[in-house]
Amino acid sequence: MKRIFELGFNDVINMDKTEILACIKASEGRTVMAETIVAVPPLIYGVSNPELAAACGADMVTLNFLDLKAPFIFGIDDNGIDLNRGAAAFEEVSRRSFENGRTPGYAKKVKDIVGRFIGVNLEPVPDGMDYPAGRKLDEANLRRALEMGFDYIVITGNPNTGVTDGGILKGIETASEILVDRVIIIAGKMHCAGGENIYDPEVLKDFAKAGADVVLIPAPGTVPGMDLELAKRQVEAIHQAGALAMTAIGTSQEGAGADVVEQMALMSKMAGVDIQHIGDAGYSGIALPENIMALSIAIRGKRHTYRRMAYSIRK
Predict the structure, then answer these.
(1) Along the chain (315 residues), what's the average pLDDT of each consecutive run of 10 residues?
(2) pTM of the predicted model as reported, rounded to 2 decimal places
(3) Which CATH number does the domain housing residue 119 bear?
(4) By the 8 A CB rule, do 157 and 125 touch?
């Protein structure tokens, strides 16, 4: 079994859910996930945020603010669109978005460009909340995610969405019934999301028992009270329940200095996590690219980081 930073393009394209999870486990805490906002022009003109994250060492790339009814990724889907044309340009964006929504293998197309495992955020927002229908966690969007070919979904909440631990639990149960053994289910809270943070390890065990393959928690040093000892207890509970564990930097600290990211990465490693996530709040929908590299280097050194970066262009 190859470790995740040893995977070439063809490995990434052809691995199924069981193989991906086994590969992450074999990597002994050295898997990097980068989250990127795709609904805004990218940080670097002509290069999408997912591609930039991959080039800086990410093994997994999560698409945030992707509307599954009308998906559109700036830097990939906007080829030939001149935003300086104003309304006419955005009419073309809208047209292409709805066309993409009718494309069953949309995520596979993105994966073919990025060369990484590709996932999407789906949010179990409370009933009655005015929220984009294509970003909500419901049966229709879960079936879309399956048809589009995503490797994983992340059940969580963006800021001020009011997502609760109960909503996440129900979302996991629904996702387990629909996705079965074909798409990895990652679930948990990176921050309070307009509600409460999750500190109780028993809640995390419930997520795993409901069908989450990976349970996420805030990285030590991100939300109030989350230190190394609490993270260790939570990770132990997640592993005891049979799931993998992931820490997340989802509190805009992905835009802090590299030394801050390195400290969080090392504490997460000491806590025993399998995957480390870095959020999208640097500039223009992506962490500072050098911070993605800093996290990768902190947990697996320059040799494997450079290997991962170089493999982004090998087919």
Answers:
(1) 93 96 98 97 94 97 97 95 87 94 93 96 92 96 97 93 94 96 96 86 97 98 96 98 98 97 98 98 96 98 94 59
(2) 0.96
(3) 3.20.20.70
(4) yes
